[in-house]
Fold:
Amino acid sequence: MILHPTYDINEAGHLTVAGLDAVELAKEFGTPAFLLDTDAVRAQCRLYRDAFRTYFGESSLPAFAGKALCYKGLYRLIAEEGLLADCVSPGEIFTAKAAGFPMEKVFFHGNNKTDADLRFALESGVGHIVADGEDELCALDRIAGEMGLKPHILLRITPGIDPHTHRKISTGNVDSKFGMAIATGQAQEFVRRALGYPNLTLDGFHCHVGSQIFDTEPFEDACDIMLSFMARVRADTGYEAEILNLGGGFGVRYTEEDPVVDYRDNIRRLGAEIDRMCALHGVKKPVIVMEPGRSVVAAAGCTLYTCGTVKTIPGFRSYVSVDGGMPDNPRYALYQSRYTVLNASRADADADFTCTVAGRCCESGDLIAEGVSLAKPVRGDVIAVLVTGAYNYSMASHYNRIPKPPVVELSGGSARVAVRRETYADLTAFDV
Ligand SMILES: *Cc1c(COP(=O)(O)O)cnc(C)c1O
Structure:
């Protein structure tokens, strides 16, 4: 096993992904290619479902955040596993609907939903709209009235937690384009307004504190703040929230330096805190929803490339150039995200060649990783970047007119294309 159960090495010395030889997969499907171990995704969905039921309560469910990875086949899988879905655009809603995903299980997010977006969501039968601000409430009430509907909504609240600093920092997230802040008093006013609209049904509250969080403390702090807010809202208006949606954010192990995450134990600890805080603040325990994205799909996905140019600049560094890069993985360019890179063709050899892995774009910043060590590759070797299941395909672009790679699903020892590779003709399809 390398990092996660999905990855191993076979007798040929090749990397295996979900038990399949990565070098063979590269031959069959071409490179670059995204691979997704859907058995691992299903296992993660079941882990979340079971843990939520056990520790949050019978009606509590995880919602998969589609912004991490979005295509029809994945929505079918999420539906089969009984999860809810979090969509952030009409495009994601359209994809879910096209896959036959039950629309009443969808939460629709976004800090700037247009009137057309809201109308589209209502026409699609989306279960909950997460209202982000007062302008949106007003627009939604008007549109719902015109359509003769009374949609269920949650209000996005900013609890004021910066998960990457430390606990009880009550300014961090207040300055955000998302939601209404408790600290400024705007959240309380937001609730009063929401309760006053005739065409809206308020079901509860939503907050999201961040992403790639390894600790449970930020979530516990968010619960504390949200439950005490709910107690104040009840005292102020008599309104008792039924749903508390705590957003996404559980971390994922990308490299050996990242901790191993015990998701079940995190949920157990959070569940115990929720029970304690409900008693403390004297509020009825709400249905808990969370929206994991990264932690459902990241570890199950990897990207295969073919090595091209290998060059060493004496006194500086070595570059390994691959046939993809920032168009399929912009995360290093965007956030200096760290990845585990392997020479899949020589996965059993010493990883003693320290290099920078670069993409093929006309852009010096088009890098996948710097200072990583792998078995020295030669032109034609298969290079694998592990743990790319989240925020890679979904963030892919056509920069430099590079077609998007396919998504290949691996399950039960076989592989099938779930999203086909784009062609050059696809690239010019919209040019009139
Ligand atoms: C990004 C986001 C998520 C998913 O976060 P992960 O870190 O991928 O789990 C869930 N909900 C909201 C509102 C988000 O913005």
The chain has a mean pLDDT of 96. The radius of gyration is 23 Å. Residues 109-292 form a domain with the TIM Barrel fold (CATH 3.20.20.10).
